Amino acid sequence: MKQPSFTGVGVALITPFRRSQETVDFTKLEGLIENIVASGVDYIVALGTTSEAATMTESERAAVQEFIVETVAGRIPIMLGLGGNNTRSITDTIAATNFDGISALLSVTPYYNKPNQRGLHAHYTAVSEASPVPVVIYNVPGRTGVNLTAETTLSLARECPNIIGIKEASGNLQQIMEILRNRPAGFRVISGDDALTYPLLTLGADGVISVIANALPKETADMVHLTLKGDLKHALPIHNRLLPLINAIFEEGNPTGIKALLEAQGTIYNVLRLPLVKASKPLSNKLATLYNEFRG
């Protein structure tokens, strides 16, 4: 496989769990992957935030990664989520990780200890130098408590050849536009918010790492691909149809909402690991109703 461009739709893959003992349901995971691959998405993100990787054991994460690689079997690229707030621990983990079948690394900004911009720059420089595959930064201040500024992002983009893009989930359009306006050639700007994907694409972003695409991969891929081609006339109606479901799945957090929607589809059992809990009954009912309306 040639080096992926990471344009278009990446799916932030959930992890299905069994009802008994909350163990990984590999049968459901296989079905989910097969549907996603067949629906025309461009790549999969394994073990990101949406996967509940933070509540998995090290052996579970390794098993899930291996299973995803084997199931995808080279049909589309895989980006691996690997981040944390201890730089040395991350670089040690990178050194011990099997990157067979992995095309890139998605690494979230360090959380809880709230480094300043110099610390963030030094952190990502170390991750970039340690990684045998290209690195995509993940900026999500709502989860981490720290924002990677446009200035720091652009500095990393120019100074670290192995950093090839950013998943931007700050929700700060001015910041994202600054990155888009001044980024070096080839540096990917990827939406980290499903609801903002369409407007960001019209501003020049390269795609999305999507949560809703777990349940609606074809529709998400169609909307993104049409927008990237400049066919806004046909892309906008799809965006508008998706938007009520997108907004609803994040009402009680992620992956709470997307798992409730996948249950409404009959795709998985709606099981999460504490401290996450299932969607409330009102939200579950709302998602089922919205999904039925979406199907028409």
Set down the secondary structure blueprint:
Elements: E1 8-12, H1 26-38, E2 43-46, H2 58-72, E3 78-81, H3 87-96, E4 104-108, H4 117-130, E5 135-139, H5 141-144, H6 150-159, E6 163-168, H7 173-182, E7 188-191, H8 197-202, E8 207-210, H9 217-228, H10 232-249, H11 256-265, H12 281-295
Parallel strand pairs: 1-2, 1-8, 2-3, 3-4, 4-5, 5-6, 6-7, 7-8
Helix pairs in contact: 1-2, 3-4, 4-6, 6-7, 9-10, 10-12, 11-12
3D structure, described in words:
By secondary structure, the chain is an alpha/beta fold. The protein has one domain: TIM Barrel. It is 46% helix and 12% strand. Strands 1-2-3-4-5-6-7-8 form an eight-stranded parallel barrel, surrounded by five helices. The longest helix is centred in the last third of the chain and has 18 residues. It is globular. The mean pLDDT is 97.
- CATH architectural arrangement: Alpha-Beta Barrel
* CATH homologous superfamily identity: Aldolase class I
Report the uncertain regions: none
Q: Assign the CATH class.
A: Alpha Beta
Q: Say how many strands there are.
A: 8
* Proportion of strand residues: 5-15%
Number of helices: 12
Q: Termini distance? A: 39 Å
Q: How many discrete structural domains?
A: 1
Describe the biggest sheet?
A: 8 strands, parallel, barrel
